[in-house]
Amino acid sequence: MTDEEAAVATPHRPATLKDIAALAGVSIATASKALNGREHVREETRQRVQRAAEQLHFSPNTLAQGLFAGRTGTVGLITSDLDGRFSIPILMGAEDAFGAGSMSVFLCDARGDAIREQHHLRALLSRRVDGIIVLGDSANPRDSIGHDLPVPVVYAYAPSTDPGDVSVVSDNLGAGRMAAEHLLACGRSRIAYISGDVTYEVARERVAGAAAVLGEAGLQLLGGEALYGAWSEVWGRGAARTVLTRFPEVDAILCGSDQIARGVLDVLHETGRTVPDDIAVIGHDNWEPLATQSRPPLTTIDMELQEVGRVAAQLLVEAIDGRPGSGSHRVACRLVTRDSTAPAG
Q1: Adjacency order of strands within the sheet including 191-194
Q2: Which residues, including other chains, have CB under 8 Å from residue 142's CB and lie 6 or more apart?
Q3: Whole-angstrom distance, CA of residue 156 vs CA of residue 310
Q4: How large a percentage of the chain has pLDDT more than 90?
Q5: Interatomic CA distance for residues 64 and 130, integer angstroms
Q6: 45 Cα distance to chain centroid
Q7: DSSP conformation letters of 251-281
Q8: Whole-angstrom Cα distance, residue 243 to residue 130?
Q9: What phi, psi does 280 have (nearest 5°)?
Q10: Span of 74-83, 110-119, 249-258, 260-269 with lowest mean pLDDT
Q11: Contact 127/108 with Cβ under 8 angstroms?
Q12: What angle do CA 7, 12, 16 make, to 5 degrees?
């Protein structure tokens, strides 16, 4: 009996990569490459190795596969906003994508501290992770975590300021367009915009998208520009009073966030305006505990943050597989229609 036949004929011992290589008549290195789908293996050889694996009922050890491929099957995820309502959906989307490929995630909370972030980076690299996702604590662009790193890095939600890095963000310009298009479809034409902090690029992009749509329709925002302030209900209430005083003809108010929109709704109720009959209101974020409990429930823009996480994970896997990308990737947002907007009577 040959060594190859003995390996096949020993039922009590699980088959090994060496057994596969012997049965297929190839080296262990070639068998590993064939089973892991790597390049530089002829198709005929790959099929012969796969047939040998099936014949021996080979069940590869995941860690061993990773070692043969030069990988650990782990990635790092550094966030500065572990408790945030924006970061959690992104984390869920990334983990869903990684889970489908049996990738384990080391989660690190930097708490907005650059020193702590670098500490986590060193710790993850010491664990030989295959790649890293960096999730910011706001949507504003951030500095690159480092260059010439031994593993690929993808930035999610907060893009890197380096155009050579890979970033994944929500399409805020498209979101502004989407919101304005919805209000125009509802028959509204006297539209005000109450935005958040002007120092946030996403705030300016949302306003620019809405203004562009109105311009294409021969209209403009009431007053010719948005009102900028805090991302808060308090700002929403104060700005709403300003809008009603300056533009009593207003028939719709676009808001930079759901919190701002909630403050706007409070003032409209206090002043006897009916929503949406008199004035339609639309928010941004689709923060469901707030949007669904508003009076009336709030039409808003969903940033599709889980999809942002999934795309970031997919791009990281592609980079790990030797197909690195660059630049900013935008994920389309989604309009969630509720009772605060309706066709004008």
Answers
A1: 191-194, 252-255, 280-282
A2: 134, 136, 155, 158, 159, 160, 161
A3: 10
A4: 63
A5: 15
A6: 40
A7: -EEEESSHHHHHHHHHHHHHTT--TTTT-EE
A8: 52
A9: -85, 145
A10: 74-83
A11: no
A12: 45
Contact present, 258 and 283 (Cβ < 8 Å): yes
230 token code pair: 């805090």
Spell out the residues 6+ positions from residue 234 whose beta carbon is closer than 8 angstroms to its own. Answer: 263
d(CA 283, CA 182) in angstroms, rounded, equals: 12
Compute the distance between CA of residue 280 and CA of residue 183 in angstroms, rounded to an integer.
8
- pLDDT tens digits along 167-216: 999 999 999 999 999 999 999 999 999 999 999 999 999 999 999 999 99
Q: Can you tell me the distance from the alpha carbon of 267 to that of 284, in angstroms, rounded to the nearest whole number?
A: 18
Of 156, 106, 165, 152, the C-alpha closest to 134 is 156
Report the distance separating Cα 188 and Cα 32, nearest Å.
Answer: 63
pLDDT tens digits, one per residue of 277-301: 999 999 999 999 999 999 999 999 9
- Cβ atoms < 10 Å from Cβ of 216: 12
Q: Which helix (H) or strand (E) holds 78?
A: strand 74-79
* Closest by Cα among 209, 183, 210 to 275: 183
Which spans in the chain are helix H? Answer: 3-8, 17-24, 28-35, 43-55, 62-68, 87-100, 114-126, 172-185, 201-216, 233-246, 258-270, 288-291, 305-320
Please name each of the domains of the chain with its CATH number: 17-60 (1.10.260.40), 71-170+304-331 (3.40.50.2300), 172-303 (3.40.50.2300)
Using a cut of 0.90, tell me whether the model's pTM lies above it: no
- Write down the residue that tokens 């009577």 correspond to: 345
